[in-house]
Fold this sequence. Notes:
Number of helices: 6
Shape: elongated
Distance between the termini: 24 Å
Low-confidence stretches: 1-8
Largest sheet: none
Radius of gyration: 19 Å
Amino acid sequence: MNKYMNMNNRNKKNGMLKWVGLVELIMGAMNLSNGLLSMYVLFSKGQEVLDEIEKTNHITVTMQEMTISVLVTVVLGAAMLAAGLIAMMFNGIKGKEKLPFIMGIILLACILISNIINIVMLRSSFSLSFILWVVIHGLYLYGAYRNKQNIEAENL
């Protein structure tokens, strides 16, 4: 009987949310591993890394600024990984339609904060990759919104 109850709670899946969720999952895993590796390198060879940044980019960055930048990468990677998992697990499930939508908003906020931190703290310029991430996270949010609409429409 429990098997049939679960089938009644599952609505039509949103294909866009599923595919963008898969992209978020893969890219989140890559960003998280990149951030963790960067953190390891930063803490094991801190001053050498800072000297290399100063030498190649002609800017002086403190250990605190680099640590914050690396932590932002780790947090963003973890958020993307979580968003991808949520999209894959809760896509089309009644009662869980708000979770992917909330994650989409969190993703857009994280990428905006990340870009602001990189521009202000690391004195970098506006990155074109920011636009790509806004598009990907925007598609995730749109897919989550459509998922929410589909579930609500089927439950009327």
